[in-house]
UniProtKB/TrEMBL annotation:
Transmembrane regions: 12-30, 60-77, 83-102
InterPro entries reported for this sequence: Bact_Sigma-Reg, PPM-type-like_dom_sf, PPM-type_phosphatase-like_dom
Keywords: Hydrolase, Membrane, Transmembrane, Transmembrane helix
Domain PPM-type phosphatase: 137-348
Protein name as annotated: Serine/threonine-protein phosphatase
SMART domains, A to Z: PP2C_SIG
Keyword Phosphoprotein: no
Keyword Secreted applies: no
Gene Ontology MF: a single term: phosphatase activity
Length: 349
């Protein structure tokens, strides 16, 4: 344990020493064979430093590198145009690296480590929205697509089945903004909403989520959400909406789609003591339920009502062959590629 701790403490210093050695090696090679090696050889240690040195060491390292480069230039008998252009290029790249270092200083870690931390955070939080194991008679699937195809989106799903019992809670959320602009807020809210969903009774979830958003005091701190509470034994469900597009249910017995509008639901993060009325219903064998975000049914040329009609039509056509992988098939056919899209499919076999 002691040796491991010592290695962790020496890690940043060892990386710095290796980078300093690389600069000195470049200087030695440049001095030894000046006609064969260009001054731009210093771009190599610049590249590695931008990736592996933290913001505390990087500015001083850049000063050291540029000073060594200028000493090497001064030792040359003549400075031609090629050498001058190389010096300008190295200074320009060093300026860009320094700017990136200042942006990273708020995080306090080097580039790859900061990126890996962010990716790990995203994966850990998004894993909280994974659907829990369900009884054999139930099938559920989620599909998410972000604007521009980035891995960060403003739409997310959280799920909870307390104690693997008969109750299943599913929430689809649409955070204001889209793509990377909404990504940080989405990461924070998905973790918070997952904790609230598992800790509170169903009727208290949306009020608690609303209070949480109000406390953040974000300039664009609103979100829409729809919450489905499902009895896995009886098939009874309760829908509560916060300014979200209505759920759509396929009634297998009647062979038609039913829209479940939740009247009066207020967008989260706007009003205190907001009310979220409940809509009750039952899912019988063969029925399916679709929860989705507005990016799936709305775009500039089509309002949400027409989008819901199209969703029902595509659902009837695509899901006729089976519900398995139905969410992915539907989301690939519908919605705007310039907006985040989320779709949750629940089916009672």
């Amino acid at each position: 344990m002691t040796s491991l701790t010592t290695l962790n403490r020496r890690g940043p210093a060892l990386v710095l020493y290796l980078h300093v050695t690389l600069v000195l090696v470049c200087a030695a090679v440049l001095t030894g064979v000046p006609d064969l090696v260009p001054i731009t050889v210093f771009i190599l240690p610049l590249f590695f430093a931008s990736h592996y040195l933290g913001p505390r060491h990087l500015p001083w390292y850049l000063i050291f590198l540029l000073a060594v480069m200028l000493i090497c230039v001064a030792q040359r008998q003549r400075a031609d145009l090629r050498t001058s252009a190389g010096v300008v290029a190295v200074f320009f790249i060093a300026f860009i690296v320094l700017q990136a270092s200042f942006r990273r200083s708020r995080l306090g870690v080097s580039g790859p480590r900061g990126e890996s931390m962010l990716v790990d955070l995203r994966d850990r939080i998004m894993s909280q929205g994974m659907l829990p194991p369900l009884p054999a008679e139930w099938y559920a699937e989620t599909a998410l697509r972000s604007a521009g195809g980035t891995p960060f989106a403003g739409d997310f799903v959280v799920a909870s089945r307390p104690g693997n019992g008969r109750r299943l809670d599913l929430v689809v959320v649409d955070v204001s903004g889209k793509g990377e602009d909404a990504g940080t807020r989405s990461l924070l809210l998905s973790g918070a909403f997952s904790g609230l969903l598992g800790a509170l009774p169903p009727e208290e979830f949306l009020p608690a989520a609303n209070d949480y958003l109000l406390r953040q005091e974000w300039e664009e701190g609103f979100a829409t959400a729809i919450h489905l509470t499902l009895d896995l034994d009886a098939g009874d469900f309760v829908l509560r909406s916060a300014g979200h597009p209505p759920a759509v249910q396929l009634s297998a017995g009647a062979g038609r789609w039913v829209v479940h509008p939740a009247e009066g639901g207020t967008v989260l993060g706007v009003l205190e003591d907001a009310d979220f009325p409940a809509v009750h219903g039952t899912m019988r064998r063969g029925d399916a339920m679709l929860l989705y975000t507005d990016g799936l049914v709305e775009n500039r040329s089509r309002d949400i009502a027409m989008g819901i009609d199209r969703l029902q039509g595509q659902g009837e056509r695509l899901l006729r062959s089976g519900m398995d992988d139905g969410a992915r098939r539907l989301i690939d056919k519908l919605g705007s590629r310039n907006d985040d899209r989320a779709l949750l499919l629940v089916h009672r076999r």
